[in-house]
Amino acid sequence: MAIAVALLGCEHPHIPDILGVVASEPDVRLAAVWSADRAAVPGAVADYVVSSPDTAIGRADVAIVCAPTDERPALCVRAAQAGRPILVEEPLARTATEAARVAREIARSRTPAYATLFLRELPGLGRLRALLRSDVLGRVTGAAATYHEPTALDGRAATGWMKQARRAGGGAMTHLGIHLVDALTALGARPRLDAVRLDRHATSDSDVGGAGLGRWGDVPLTLRTSWVIRPGGLEFVINGTAATAALRDGTLEIAADLGAPERWVGAPPDAGEAVRAFLARLRSRKLGDGGLRAAVAAHEVIERASVL
After folding, report:
1. If exposure means fewest CB atoms within 10 Å of the residue's CB, which of 53, 69, 125, 188 is most exposed?
2. 203 C-beta neighbours (distance < 10 Å), count
């Protein structure tokens, strides 16, 4: 029997990736779409629009929440109360404190819920993790992580809320930084950010990026994000006493003092991979009620940093 999906909110840049996965999986079907902004609904799914989120939830087996950040807590709680497993864009709420409260409320319902932390599904990240465990780099001496997406330059009206602090909470440093913090955690240790410098934009009251300084384990860490750099890209650079590893989008390169660099080419980041991982958990019935903890913890790392 097909997995029926309710899409709650269409105002996120990842909507094409999510709908692409739903359309490509033979045992998955779109059951209903609800969005507070009707103009944001893609024409291809306009026939699935319903008048209320409760109607959408009632027609589906699972809920995927892509609404603006300020709408996510209420939508997630409604889906959880209906017993529908949830996949939600990050951050879960405008502040880490609110996100933690919502995650606890969802956990009390014992409804499985996960955040779209799709960098964890990146094959190159798994290769880099194995490389670090093999000690090929020697003693790690420093790390840098960068994530750029030209979200603020694409001109889409539906994503205008991302530039409004009252709706989005944090800007690019939060939305993209959560992914970087979570990926670094998956590589071996949750980072600590001591300070961040935010980039502002004339048309935004939220940040459009910035830089952070802190520690990853016992080594120095720099972290950079931006919504106003084109082309976008993801990069992790791990320096060691024997070699340096650089993961750029999906390609992992290892450079030592002698010899040519070794290179492994893999798939680039794809938000749809978080949907595929969520569906795989559903099919295998390997669902738990703590799937939001990583997103909340990463949000806390960003929010605790001093703003310069």
Report:
1. 188
2. 9
Percent of the chain at pLDDT > 90 equals 89
Residue 80's closest CA among 97, 48, 103? 103
- CA atoms lying within 13 Å on the CB side of residue 237: 12
Out of 23-37, 147-161, 294-308, least confident range: 147-161
Under the banding of pLDDT at 50, 70 and 90, the label for residue 156 is: confident
Residues 249 and 133 in one domain: yes
Longest CA span, the chain: 64
End-to-end CA distance of the chain: 53
Residue spans of beta strands (DSSP E) within the chain: 3-8, 28-34, 62-65, 86-88, 113-115, 140-148, 192-201, 204-216, 219-226, 233-240, 243-248, 251-256, 262-265, 306-307
**237 and 276, same domain (yes or no):** no
Q: What is the CATH number of the domain that holds 258?
A: 3.30.360.10
pTM of the model: 0.96
261 & 153 share domain: yes
- The residue range of the domain holding 249 is 119-269
Kindly state whether residue 298 falls inside one of the protein's structural domains: no
| Residue 55 sits in the same domain as residue 148 | no
Average pLDDT of the residues of the chain: 95
Is 300 a member of any domain?
no
Distances (CA, A) of 133 to 129, 257, 262: 6, 20, 17
At residue 179, does pLDDT exceed 80?
Answer: yes
Instruction: Give mean pLDDT, residues 8-37.
Output: 97
Residue 216: exposure state from Cβ atoms within 10 A (0-12, 13-18, ≥19): buried
Q: Among all chains, which residue has been given the structure tokens 């033979």?
A: 26
